[in-house]
Amino acid sequence: MHRTARRGLAIASTIALLVTAAGCGGDDGPTSGGGSVPGVTDTEIVVGTHMPLTGPASAGYSKIAPATKAYFDYVNANGGVHGRKITYKVMDDGYNPANTQQVVRQLVLQDKVFAVLNGLGTPTHTGVLDFLKTNRVPDLFVASGSRSWDQPDKYPGTFGFNPDYTIEGKILANYAKANLAGKKVCFLGQDDDFGRDSLAGVEKVLGAGAVAVKQTYVTSNTNVAPQIGAFKAAGCQVVMLATVPGFTALSVGTAARLGFKPQWLVSNVGADHPTLAKQLGAAAPLLEGMVGTNYLPMQNDTANPWIQLFTKINKTHNGDAPFDGNTVYGMSVGYLFVQVLLAAGKDVTREKVLDAVQKGGFQGPGLVPLRFSAKDHSGYGGQRLSRVSGGVQTYFGPAYETDEADGPVNEYTAAPVAPPANGVPTVS
Amino acid sequence: MSATRAAVPPRQWVGEAGDRPVDTGRRGSTLLRHLAVLLAVGLALVAVSYAVEPFRNFQLATVAAYLCATAGLTVLTGLNGQLSLGHGALMATGAYTVALCQNAFLDRGLTGGWLLPLSLVAAVLGTVAVGAVVGVAAARLRGPYLAGVTLAVAVVVPALAVTFDGVFNGEQGLSVPVEPPPMALGAYFPYERWQLWLSGAATLLALLLVANLIRSRYGRTFRAVRDDEVAARLAGIHVARTQVLAFVVSAATAGLGGGLLAMLAQSVSPGAFSLTLSLFLLMAVVIGGLGRLAGALWGAVLLVALPDLTHSVTELFTLSPAVAQRLEGNLPLAIFGVTLIVVMIAAPGGVQGLLSRLGRALLARWPARRS
User: Does B173 contact A123 at a Cβ distance shorter than 8 Å?
Assistant: First the structure.
């Protein structure tokens, strides 16, 4: 007889009985364990993020999460938020959307994080929006300016942080229109929503046919000579870059090799001078005259109280790592999250946190206001232009704000606020 | 003689447990036996899916998806002696087919649980077509030349996604709309458990077909061609046809595996199917044990467990941020490479070879137990 078959059937029927027994248990509702909040205990709140610690976008960006963590450690050392310490789990996705899927599932399903904070990257984070939505995980302050984060009806739990790329495109184009009139404008963007949204903003201001040459790059190919060559051949005088820092440096370096010297106008996410100077090494002087944007205090502005605070925290809680725009950015994210947690109250739940963000009214290091409301999930609403001169990046002119539609680009004149004395926000 | 030998495991451990040419101890129907095993494993999977956490369910579903691909690669490399460095690209073919089909269905307003199997079938068919083309080329090549061609496939296919970004949306990739579990299972049925059921069912079906194929006349001709092409030809076997068939079978399973991965991640992007994946697949089947389906299972488990393990390891040590960052992305690769070298030296039969040797040694210790 078929001994194996008989044995198999015996095993199978045993398992079938077991399954029936297990199945009778039924499934819990959405909250298991009697209404406890995932990631929250009386003494701790766990949040997670995905960051490009390795890979094509790691230049500069890999320093953001450590800075955020340093700010949390500083707050924890000062008693935490409502008596809870903030634990920040940072997962590396290598700027590869496939890895992001894996690590975010690990954060949500295995580590049971309360929220995902500042997940970085347009292509990477786009892939996990639906997953976070179906698991009802707050998806706060995405580190990207894509307009995808601002869809309150479709993704009620997702909020941006950066000014969106369309706003930024408009502000940069506005500068070109006013100061570089009559020059041939060209555009290089990342081949995803980042590049597309940015170009949309540029064309809103300059007009649809105004950009002479449009090129894209992919992060998996570190040769931008064809694109830069096309700009040179077309006689571009102004090149706008919607690039991550590594590719800003590549573009500037490649152009120098080809003997091509346009005026660069660079997106805030790829314009941090210390990061670029480190990438270019001895060729750092090529950055002279580069115009960029930013919306947080400039990292070298030692007179700014926020920079003084962040420098101090960087020394005490971040191993005195090189201080640059990414450090300022990471700590600003941390500051905002602590403000939100304070506003959400002692009995924090995911719903309360979302309500707190939507209520808005957060004052922080930013030069322009945050726009959070029930109808608007986008982050900062404007930017200020910066220029590199004498190897130092400084702001010039006023801050601007605008919308992602066809609204005008207006000056924003309100004075920035000072940080609280001990560097920890209080309930407003 | 033929350079295919390079990919063939050395003689001394071929012809053992996983490679039974004729097993005189067993009579009866192979199909029945395989069906019984399938039923048992299927029920065990269902039981496990209730017993473990959602994240483990997701990981198991991912193991199942990879198992499809490693099983096919086992047939191709282990049984037929053809080396393929391009199976990641075949997985990408399946994954993108599923993504394009699901999106096309959604655009036409079609919804329903029956669409996903349809997309998966389309993925298998699409990959079979690609596999047949590559297979015809592969059948004419030997050794390093074959490795070269399949390597080219592994590099070209993900690049296509970036080149034709109008269809494939470049590096950002496409999202894959997938239906939630049917309401009949209850409103709060965990999504990850449903994923494991789908992925497990598809994989078991594929494994059943592959296992039957291995034990059939075709399996014998695969092995005959691997061991000695001239002898096979003298015995009346059409060598080229056999090699193309082996390639097509393994392509079909890789396509299914890729399709399942797309379903699990609910998105596809070229980064998921890089050259690294192709190399990982091959290393996984070698470490698991070439030429045995059980070896393919160990390989698939390794593929999923390793990144997780390395992350835990890096968390154990308090490293400076800079060092931790470097390790995070590169450590899995290094560990995989080292494991491969150690396995090749210490246990050329892979994990499965080691286990069956242990099993036999134990059985020999208790002869009385065997009636």
Answer: yes
- Tell me if A53 sits within 8 A of B311, measured CB to CB: no
Closest CA in chain B for residue A95: B271
* pTM for this predicted structure: 0.81
Q: Tell me: the pLDDT tens digits for A193-215?
A: 999 999 999 999 999 889 999 99
Work out whether strand A44-51 and strand A85-92 pair parallel, antiparallel, or are unpaired.
parallel
Taking the CA of residue B174 and the nearest CA in chain A, the distance in Å comes to: 8
In the numeric block, which tokens belong to residue A333? 């994210």
* Distance separating alpha carbons of residues A138 and B227, to the nearest angstrom: 58
What pLDDT digit, counting tens, does each position of A239-248 carry? 999 999 999 9
Contact A11 B40 (CB under 8 A): yes
Please give the Cα distance from A78 to B137 (Å, whole number): 67
Kindly tell me the sign of the dihedral angle through the C-alpha atoms of B361, B362, B367, B371: negative
Give the residue from chain A lying closest to B327, CA to CA: A54
Partners of residue B179 in chain A, C-beta under 8 Å: none
Q: With CB atoms and an 8 Å threshold, state whether B329 touches A94.
A: yes
- CA–CA separation, A35 vs A96, rounded Å? 35
CA distance B102 to B122: 11
Lookup: tokens for B104 = 């096309």
Please state, in angstroms and rounded to a whole number, the distance separating the CA atoms of residues A379 and A365.
Answer: 13
| Average pLDDT by stretches of 10, chain B with 371 residues | 43 42 59 91 93 90 95 93 92 96 91 88 96 92 88 90 86 84 82 92 96 93 94 94 95 96 89 87 90 91 83 70 63 79 84 89 75 50
Cβ contact A30–B325 (<8 Å): no
* Cα(A80)–Cα(A276) distance, integer angstroms: 35
Sheet (strand A263-266) strand order: A211-217, A185-190, A238-242, A263-266, A291-294, A382-389, A392-401, A410-412
Closest by alpha carbon to A286, among A320, A266, A261, A268? Answer: A261
